Amino acid sequence: MKKLNQLLSVILLFCFTNAFAQKKDKENVTPLNTGYFSIGLGYGISSLFGDIGEGSSISFTNRFKTAYSASIEKRFGRVLGVGANAVIGQVAENERTISRQLNFQTDFKQFGLHVTANSDVNGDMVFAPYVSAGVSYMIFDVYSDLQGGNNTPYYYWSNGAIMDLPEKNENGETIQQNLVDANDYPRDYTYETNVSESFNETPESYDKNTLVFPVTLGFKFKMFEFLDTRLFGTYNVTQTDFLDNFKKDGNDSYLYAGVSVNYTVGKKYIDPKEKNYDNIDFLAIENADSDGDGVTDIWDECPNSKKGEPVDSKGCELDDDGDGVPNHLDKEPKTNRAKILKGAVDREGRGLTDEQLALMEQRRQGLLVTRVERFYEAPSLDMLKEFDIYSDSDQAKGSASIALPAKFRFADVNSDGIIQSNEITLAIDMFFSGEIDISVSDIMDMIDFFFEQF
């Protein structure tokens, strides 16, 4: 009874601290998955606390037997669960002293209901203790090892030996002949005899069914979303003193310790915020191809390639010589590799001469610098449009200009190899709408290029 009181104290402390934690952290926990039922299968060992076995010289390992369990539980809320369980197993004990030689093995089946207090209130918890208590109904049969393999009874002699012949007759007199003929007859630990009366000096019969009050302390280890492993110990207080076939003081009890695998039949918790996207066709978005080049938008690095022009696996118009100018704009399809490496290629894919490069540098140091400074003093769309006028002039069309960098190709809507003010505006709109992955720095570089391209 003292052990039971200690165990109940642990359970009350567990429930109190768990309830306190719930109140404190209620707003911060991750919701659990919505489970219908948790189904578990367990295996372990059982050990009886009864009236046989004290002072025995037989190894204590003989008192451990196997047991199997199954359970089904419904979770109500974050903490409490209600379920049904079954345990099928054995308990055994052996006692061998000069004055008393008793042994038994009890086969039992136990079915009941239980209430569980859980601590895994957070769906992300991997390790969590739990406690449960309930009531069960047990039916049992007691067996004893009274004879060996050849159906000969065991005879316990006064010197502690087990022989195949009795040491004394019915009158308590030593049988002299048996002192010569008797042989050692060790036990086979096969419990073959079903006993119906107790081992007491005055045998009595008893009911082979009883109520049991199990109390469990266990630990859950979450393996997958709906699968966990549990280590547990269940102390079972029975309402009979004959589980060991011997009546003494108080009822018998037994401990069942084991491991189980539990699977929750249910569905994944979905945050209400995620439900806002229920009507969105993500498959259509994934397969979208805005420019019709055969490369879906999510993989298309050039989302505005010219209609009808062949593209590579990245969705960019083919550029056979790698000079940065698509084939359909390239007026020099096989530009010198050295020119390409130096960046000495104009917007039509032609290699620039040293004189042309020097002239472009001169312009950068002169008029273009002035325009850039003027723009950044009071940047506006109208000012950008003023420079579009220059790009349309005959002088601009006839002058050398650098090729459009690949990172700005997305903004070249009309595929003419030139960035114009309306295309910069479009790029800014795409930046703010998130249609393309560019940075503020990319926008600034594009504006610089806008001034340098003529």
Description:
This protein has 454 residues and is of the alpha+beta class. It has four domains: 224 residues, Porin (Beta Barrel), CATH 2.40.160.20; 40 residues, no CATH class; 38 residues, no CATH class; 134 residues, no CATH class. It is built from ten helices and eleven strands. An eight-stranded antiparallel beta barrel has the order 1-2-3-4-5-9-10-11. A hairpin with a 3-residue loop joins strand 2 and strand 3. The chain starts with a helix and ends with a helix. About 4% of the residues have low confidence.
Task: Compile the SSE list and pairings.
Layout lengths: L1 H24 L8 E16 L15 E12 L3 E17 L4 E18 L8 E18 L10 E2 L5 E2 L12 H6 L11 E2 L14 E16 L2 E12 L14 E15 L14 H5 L50 H6 L11 H12 L1 H11 L3 H11 L2 H5 L22 H13 L6 H13 L2
Summarize the structure.
By secondary structure, the chain is an alpha+beta fold. The protein is built from ten helices and eleven strands.
